[in-house]
Amino acid sequence: MACAVAMVGTALVAGPTAATADDPDRTAAHQAAVSTAAVDSQALEQSLTEAPSKGLQTPFEASNGANWTTVEQAQAFLEDLEASSERVALHEVGTSGEGRPINLMTIGSPAPKSPEDIAEGSFILFNCSIHGNEPSGREGCLQLARDMSTTSDPAWNRLLRQTTVGFIYTNPDGWVADTRGNADGTDVNRDFMALETPEAQALATVIRDWNPDVLNDLHEYGPREYYDTAALVLWPRNRNVDETIHRLSERMVNDYTGAQIEANGMTSGIYGLLIKDGVPFQQVAGDGQARILRNYAGLKHVTGQLTEAASGPVTAEEENDPLLTNRRRVSVQYASSVGSLAMISENRTRLARQSEAAAQRATEAGASQSGVVYFEGQDNMVPTTPEGAEPDPMCGYQLTGAQLEELASTLELQDVAWEENADGAFVSMAQPSRPLIPLLLDERSEFGLVAATPLDDC
C-alpha cells in the first residue's frame, strides 16, 4: 500500500493540504501528485513542546507504557485539556449502566459547542475502544486529542478550521472492569440494531445528531499463526451499504490508514483474513453483520472502518519487552487515526457530498423500489439461501400498534421515520435510512427486531 503522507513515531502527525477528489477510485499516487505536504518531525515536536498543554501527559506516557490510563485519570485529563485550549469542548452524550459519563470530545478552530457548530459541516469521529479490555485505542485518542489541540502547525490548524474532530469514549464501565462488555456483560459492538445498551444508544445518538462523514472504530485483536500483523484494518462489508460509500471506505483502508501504519515501520493487513506466504487462504472474521459498528456506520452513509491493533507481541523485540508491545499497540491506533485525518483533509468536500448523495440515492431507491435488498452475505460473499435477498424490494413496512409501541424509541434513535395509521404505523422505504429498515423490521433479517409486514404497493 502507498499513501500520500507519512508519519514516523507515535508523536508525529502528517499534515496534508486539502485536495478534493472527484473520482472515488483515484489512486494514492495520483493523490500524492496533486497534493502532498509532509510535516517536518522536528518542527512538529517543537510546536508540541511550546504548546501550553505540553506538560499534560497521560499516565501511560508518563510510565513509558507500563500503566494504562484509568477512567478517573482520563476524565481529569479531558477536563484539563478542555480548560487549557479554546479548541476543545467536552460533551456528556450519555450515561453508562453504572452511571459514568460517556464523553464526546470535539476539537476545532474554534471548538464546536453543538452539532450546529461543526466546522463547515465536516466531522470525523473516532470511537476510542468500545471494548473495555482493549485499552490502546483510548490511549491513542487521548494523545492525539492533546496533540491536535495544542499544535501550532499551519497544516493542522487549517484542517481544524475546516473539519471538526471528535473522540468518543463509549464503554467506561467495561474500561473500569477490564472486560470486553459493559456492566451487564453485553458486547456493545453487537448492539447497533436493537440499541438496548445505554452505551450504544449514546453512540447512535452522536451519529444521528452530529452526522459524521468519517468514522474510525478502534479495537485490538489477539495475534496468532497466519494472523499476526501489528495492525488489521477493514471497511464495512454489509451488502446494503451504498456503493460509493463502500468504495471510499475501502480506499481509506488501503490508501490512508493501512499505508500510514506501514509508513511507521509496522505491518498491516486486512481484518479477518489468514495469510500464508503473502496469500490469503481463509476468512475467519469481518462479516457484514449490521449490528456491528463498522457495518452500521456504512449503512448510515458514513465512510468508515475498523482498526485492530495486535494486543500481543508480533516481533522478537516485543517478545522480550512487554512495554515495547504496549507502546506499539498505541502507535498503531495513533497512526491509523492520522491516516483517517489525512483522508478527510484531502477529500473533505467529496466525503461530505457523497454522504448526502448516498442518503438521497437511498431515498430514491426506496421510492422506485429499485435495487436489491440483502438479508445475508457480504461484499465478497453473495447470499446462499433464497431468503438471503429480495430482488423485488418492498415499498415499506406496516407495523402493528404493539410493534410501534415496542420500537418507537429505537426507530427514533435510528433516525427512521414513520406515519401512524389505523393499523399501527407505516414505515416507508423512501427515506435515507432505507438500507437499515429491512434489517430492522423484516423477519428474514437475522438480527431484526420484529416481523413487520412488507408491502409491495404503497
Automatic annotation (TrEMBL):
<feature type="domain" description="Peptidase M14">
    <location>
        <begin position="67"/>
        <end position="306"/>
    </location>
</feature>
<keyword id="KW-0732">Signal</keyword>
<keyword id="KW-0482">Metalloprotease</keyword>
<dbReference type="InterPro" id="IPR000834">
    <property type="entry name" value="Peptidase_M14"/>
</dbReference>
<keyword id="KW-0378">Hydrolase</keyword>
<dbReference type="GO" id="GO:0004180">
    <property type="term" value="F:carboxypeptidase activity"/>
</dbReference>
<keyword id="KW-0121">Carboxypeptidase</keyword>
<protein>
    <submittedName>
        <fullName>M14 family zinc carboxypeptidase</fullName>
    </submittedName>
</protein>
<keyword id="KW-0645">Protease</keyword>
<dbReference type="Pfam" id="PF00246">
    <property type="entry name" value="Peptidase_M14"/>
</dbReference>
<keyword id="KW-0862">Zinc</keyword>
<comment type="similarity">
    <text>Belongs to the peptidase M14 family.</text>
</comment>
<feature type="signal peptide">
    <location>
        <begin position="1"/>
        <end position="21"/>
    </location>
</feature>
